[in-house]
Amino acid sequence: MEKIKSVYKKINLADWKRKEHFAVYRSQMKCGFSLTTKINIAKVLPFIKENGYKLYPVMIYLIARAVNKHDAFKMAMKEGELIVWDYVDPIYTVLHSETETFSALTAIYDKDFTRFMANYNDVGERHADNLHFFPEQPPENHFNISAIPWINFDSFNLHIADFTDYFAPSFTIGKYKKQADETLMPIAIQVHHAVCDGIHVAQLISTLEEYCENIETVIKSQV
After folding, report:
1. Across all residues in the chain, what is the average pLDDT?
2. Per-residue pLDDT tens for 99-155?
3. CATH number of the domain at 16-221, please?
4. In the chain, what are the domain boundaries?
5. Has this prediction a pTM greater than 0.85?
6. Dihedrals φ, ψ of 172, to 5°?
7. Which of 145, 215, 153 is nearest to 184 (CA)?
8. Known catalytic residue: 193?
9. Which of 131, 134, 69 is nearest to 99 (CA)?
10. Where are the beta strands (DSSP E) in the chain?
11. Neighbour order of strands in the sheet with 75-78
12. Given the residues 127, 159, 192, 193, the one annotated as active site
């Protein structure tokens, strides 16, 4: 699929309700934070089984759709100004079992599930034998997803030495585990505090939980 030009809008810091928080966490007390929780994917598993999908790309789609609903997770610095992208594409890792290394690929985000899956499959086929970290140049408008499908973790943290002005969030999902009537998948989220607070992470998690609970309706809806 041909990449369309990314668009964005500038944030008017003078009128922005988080302008003071942005200034403090960007310059005076640079920091990010991470949070790990578990989401119920009990409705997702039968959906992928009945339709012949794999769990990872479906979760990438659901996370991408949730991220693109919330401006706090689409922010960046561009030409010295704070912006919010119109949409962001997921950069996700794929394992090369023969080398036990991974590549970071990008599927163009599309709210339409069928088109997104076509994008995902096309990228995977084109770079199946490419062992480079980045087989192709990642887009400016992005966020990050990785998976540790061998471990059901309770906490996961990325330690980035310097992510000054890098506002793209990072998500890590782990091995799911059945518990009573639920099937719980761990998900860790790392964000830059300059653009994102705990309430924003809570809102995103709530959206993702809703999408997982009502996956068939969400897939069919373009709203």
Report:
1. 94
2. 999 999 999 999 999 999 999 999 999 999 999 999 999 999 999 999 999 999 999
3. 3.30.559.10
4. 16-221
5. yes
6. -130, 125
7. 153
8. yes
9. 131
10. 8-10, 32-40, 75-78, 81-85, 89-96, 101-106, 142-148, 170-174, 177-179, 182-192
11. 8-10, 81-85, 75-78
12. 193
